[in-house]
Amino acid sequence: DFTVDLPAASRDELGELSAAIQLLADDLHRLQTSRREFLASISHELRTPLTYIKGYSDIVSKNHINDEEREQYIDIIKEETEKLSKLIKDLLDLAKLDQHEFSIQLDEVPLMTMLERVAGKVRPAFQKKQLELVITGSGDIKAVVDPVRLEQVLLNLLDNARKYSHQGGKVKISVVKEDKVHLFIKDEGIGIPKEDLPYIFERLFRVDKSRNREMGGTGLGLSIVKELIEAQGGKINVQSDLQKGTTFELILEGEL
Ligand code: ADP
């Protein structure tokens, strides 16, 4: 029977050390589990559109369907192909972000000009849902950003604002300069439950899987948005009221 007689202080330290090791082991276990879950989810997300594409192209190549049906099935094939390519693009972005292979080129960019250009890109999709898109802010505000990456962020946030808005609603972009530059994207859509707010920037998190399946979401968009904004030295916040709407705020540097 062998015991080491340690002074009380180092017994405490040993206790702390073993607790710390236990925490690390728990972290590692969680990480491995989440990696596995991530892969399982992604495989599912990749397989679902492929199943549709394969199934409908088999049907389309048969002769016994009429033109109307053929057109309808081709539309589905196009939509599913679109989903698949967005998912693959998101995954490639995440991989690059993880490996720090994202080059960020910071520049002082006039925000209003950029917002008008981005708004021009999303307008057709907004019109389809009769959504009003309003931009306010002073024309001379600049922000220190990578214009390509900021555009990607804005397109993503606006696409969400459109997806989760009710037909005929309003989306407002506003820019305010204080110490920093604050850019708000506010919608009057379905909102996000309070208990889900802390998780929406996590990879693959979706508020409600059923509402997202039909919207074509993957739960990757906001995690990419957050990483891109932080890579530019910015911050992102969210505020939301269920059934009333959601506001995302970007906080950016105003000067180099
Ligand atoms: P997705 O591709 O599923 O939209 P995101 O990462 O972009 O994934 O968003 C994560 C979740 O946050 C979404 O599933 C959605 O439920 C919620 N969400 C994001 N933006 C909004 C918004 N403007 N209004 C309501 N819910 C939103």
UniProtKB/TrEMBL annotation:
Domain of life of the source: Bacteria
Asked if the keyword Chaperone belongs to this entry, the reply reads: no
Whether RNA-binding counts among this entry's keywords is no
**Start and end of every Histidine kinase domain?**
41-256
EC numbers: 2.7.13.3
The protein's topology relative to the membrane is:
Multi-pass membrane protein
This protein's GO cellular component annotations are:
plasma membrane
Which N-terminal residues, if any, form the signal peptide? none
Q: Which GO terms describe its biological process?
A: osmosensory signaling via phosphorelay pathway
Q: What sequence ranges are listed for the domain HAMP?
A: 1-33
Instruction: Provide this UniProt record's keywords sorted from A to Z.
Output: ATP-binding, Cell membrane, Kinase, Membrane, Nucleotide-binding, Phosphoprotein, Transferase, Transmembrane, Transmembrane helix, Two-component regulatory system
Could you tell me what reaction this enzyme catalyses?
ATP + protein L-histidine = ADP + protein N-phospho-L-histidine
Where in or outside the cell?
A: Cell membrane
Q: What is its main location?
A: membrane
GO molecular function list: ATP binding; phosphorelay response regulator activity; phosphorelay sensor kinase activity; protein kinase activator activity
What's the name of the protein?
Answer: histidine kinase
- Which part of the full protein is shown? 202 to 457 of 457
